[in-house]
Design a protein that fits this description.
The protein has 378 residues and is α/β, with parallel strands linked by helices. The chain has 13 helices and 15 strands.
Length: 378
């Protein structure tokens, strides 16, 4: 098919009030007589659907097995990340105009706004979390990042197949879940925090109700009773916004057995800590940090956004949290490297290492003498 014919189809599909679905595209292709043969028609339907309601030229890479991220860089080259690590696909968009048009369409489909007044935006389309930045903020050119949220069927044991000291980590992490400890999982971007949290939630007894709060839905644990709350951005005037802190407060009226905050990033920390300090055992969340020792400073910075003093954050966090599990990425492997108990000593929040993986061995730290750890690893 030539471009004028494709443009005619696009116009007919997008100018109607009816939703753009695969069935509607197939009907229009058949009525117009624009494709001969089932294989050709199927290819055309997929191309149009990807372009109009999917990820366009990025869709084929998001659909690939094992891909967790699809990235468009400033040179308009498409990259993927996942089981094979970060790799260039060798595919390049034709122009900056095409890249910017794609970014705007994706963000608009996610219900957000991307223009010169709002050059950075994110949102969600189906199982994809979309983030886009346009010039002049993106110096080299339009940037698009797509995180693929897959409903993983991997159990904690299956996830542990790539871990060093697999059996020992399984015992202690299983104890964190089984004994309903309040837990934070720390690590850098792409280190496997969400994957580990999702696998841990899959170990929660089926009779417990899990309520998950996220800015953009990513956690998809295999569990029969999971409900999700997702924050909402305001409109152009700022009306209608529902932030993470509000959602955490709403969960307290929803009878959660496990309160999960997908990622603590800001002022919602106050509500999360408050919830954990009101008897909600088994709560969990993730936080960006370079090490377990960096978690107290990270919490203090987030608490400051909520008007909390460092001392208040330290006291609240020590009372609310039991353990921090730190994960790292080594090549294509994502593995726990430290589990620490949370303590309040000498007027500050401290991480007491229980187990640390270093120099190719699992070492016991000062936190080993307290808690259930000695019984677990006998």
């Amino acid at each position: 098919m030539d471009e004028p014919q494709l443009e005619l189809l696009r116009e007919k599909l997008t100018t109607s009030a009816e939703p753009v679905t695969a069935a509607r595209i197939a009907d229009l292709v058949r009525v117009e007589g624009l494709a001969l043969g089932s294989a050709t028609a199927a290819q055309l339907v997929k191309r149009l659907r990807d372009e109009l309601v999917g990820l366009g030229p990025l869709q084929q890479f998001a659909d690939a097995e094992g891909v967790t991220d699809v990235i468009l860089d400033g040179s308009r080259t498409v990259w993927t990340d996942g089981e094979q690590g970060l790799r260039s696909t060798g595919v390049q968009l034709e122009s900056e105009e095409q890249a910017r048009t794609l970014a705007r369409r994706l963000i608009a489909a996610a219900g957000a706004r991307l223009d010169e007044g709002h050059p950075c935006a994110d949102g969600r389309i189906g199982p994809y979390r979309i983030h886009a930045v346009i010039p002049p903020v993106a110096v080299e050119g339009t940037l698009i990042s797509v995180r693929v949220a897959r409903r993983s069927t991997a159990s904690l044991e299956q996830l542990a197949n790539q871990w060093e000291a697999r059996d020992e980590w399984l015992k202690v992490i299983g104890a964190v879940v089984g004994q309903r400890m309040n837990c934070l999982i720390s690590g850098a971007t792409g280190s496997g925090k969400t994957a580990l949290l999702g696998a841990m939630l899959g170990e929660v007894p089926a009779g417990e109700r899990i309520v998950v709060v996220e800015d953009t839905t990513e956690l998809m644990p295999v569990h029969p009773h999971v409900v999700h709350l997702q924050q909402r951005q305001g409109n152009v005037e700022g009306a209608g916004q529902v932030d993470m802190g509000q959602l955490v407060r709403q969960t307290l009226r929803m009878r959660p057995d496990r309160l999960i905050v997908g990622e603590c990033r800001g002022a919602e920390l106050r509500d999360f800590l408050t919830a954990m300090n009101t008897g909600h055992q088994g709560a969990a969340g993730t936080v960006h940090a370079n090490s377990s020792d960096a978690v107290p400073a990270r919490l203090a910075a987030m608490g400051a956004l909520a008007g909390m003093t460092p001392e208040t954050v330290a006291v609240q966090a020590a009372a609310a949290l039991d353990v921090v599990i730190h994960v790292q990425r080594h090549g294509t492997r994502r593995t726990p490297v430290e589990l620490s108990q949370v303590a309040y000593r000498d007027g500050r929040l401290q991480m007491l290492p229980v187990l640390t993986w270093e120099h190719h061995s699992l070492r016991r730290g000062p936190g080993w003498q307290t808690g259930p750890w000695q019984e677990l690893l006998r």
